[in-house]
Structure of APC family permease:
Amino acid sequence: MQKLNRQIGTFSLMMTGVGSIIGSGWLFGAQKAAAVAGPAAILAWIIGMVMVLFIGLVYAELGARFPQSGGMVRYAQYSHGSVTGFIAGWANWIAIVSVIPIEAEASIQYMSSWPVAWAHTLFNATSQSLSGVGLSLAAILVFVYFLINFWTVQLFARVNTLITILKFVIPGLTGIALLCSAFHGGNFTQHGGFAPFGWSGVLTAVATSGIVFAFNGFTSPINLAGEVKRPNRSVPIAVVGSIVLAAIVYMVLQVAFIGSLTPHMLANGFQHLNFDSPFANLAMAFELNWLAIILFADAFVSPSGTGITYTATTARMLFGISENGWLAKSLSRIHPTWKIPRRAMWLNLAIAYLFLALFRGWGQLSTVISIATLISYVTGPVSALSFRNIADGMGSRVRIKGLRALAPIAFAMASLILYAGTWPSTGRVIFVMLIGLPVYLHFQYRNEGFRGFSRHIKSSVWLLAYLAFMILVSYLGSTPFGGIDVLPYGVDLLIVALGSVAFFYWGVKSAWVTPYLERAQSGYEAEMREDGHTDVMSLDEDHSATM
């Protein structure tokens, strides 16, 4: 296994997480959430934060246990074999690589609100898509993200830290300026009340309004764990710290957005809000021209910072997928001088351009990304508790307190929000996750063959059954979530919650000491010996692999 340079410190790693989280989500998320949930969008952000924090704590332990680049695509393979690992890795990669073009699109969409005639041609508000010129400018931005990551991880870390400081300050300044300039407290109780669309609207806002998407960047410190100086300490701090800091910013912005809306803007209710550049439009409406100028500039800084970060992390994910044996081995080659997986970067650039061509607006991609992200999240809690049972002696001694309760709660919360993504979106995205299986089978046959493959299939049945369960419940569910109302509102949520817990424990029971876990243990032992450690613990012999 090739090794990457460990050069990133705790602060830079946390800034990577914050930089990934605070991207285009804050520019558009407050409006989309308010349109779906009304003032109760504030609760949607809190629910989203709690869910992601629970899942983030689970992945923090996994990242410390396996400090490897592209870790998010490895854990399920270590605990459940290649079939489960591929589905989880494929979902994660699809969700993350599509973020690169959406950040570029966000910048150009905000640019279309500049007070100059030519800028207005960049985005069509009716079709919610970029024009040809706008698409070309977005393509140039994507290539800039690529170039910043092409030579060295140190350049990426330095540029990202500087950008992230600006990204944290400007959203906070925006929220404070709007709160001080124009605040209508009645907006939180009038126009249908605090929750005009009920609890279903709140949950749907979490899943489809960019909230899950907005928090998604907490995975970046985990995917960069192989290049961190002290991963045992840095990864948990970076994951938790980045989620909490971003949540504070998001909730201030949501309160400021709802409170600053004028009665005229809300004349037709929250569901009819339609700004091209929400916060910039509000700033200009209240003659805060200085703030509008800052926002137009930050529309490049915030999304571009996230785009730069995801260009780095998706290359490491593809590096991990290739080392897992699911793609061509050449994609895991590291440049001998710069220690960068450049071939993986080139493929991700091509995929980013494909998504850019297929989805020409921020709104077109955000729902798809959010649902795909939730699918990729569900295997983490199962793997984390599985390792406690079959490989607790492996890796660092960083252990999250209360994991045995935390993991099933995180799994159930992710399932509920996935269900709230509404039918048919949930079914379509789950189907996209499964159509990658032919790619997996091809490389499985070419790289390892199918000897002993039955064990891998057996340990993946729980996940395949879970995905089928989610499709069925979404279709039969209540009308607020897009279903045909065979399962009435409330009953559907109860079935998802109880069913997800059952699938969680089935998944934990299906874990085994896979050959991939044994190889990871061997690599860990070798690295510990290189660092002078002699007290390396072994895998649980009672759960040894059988081929």
The first strand starts at residue 123 and ends at 124. The longest helix spans residues 289-323.
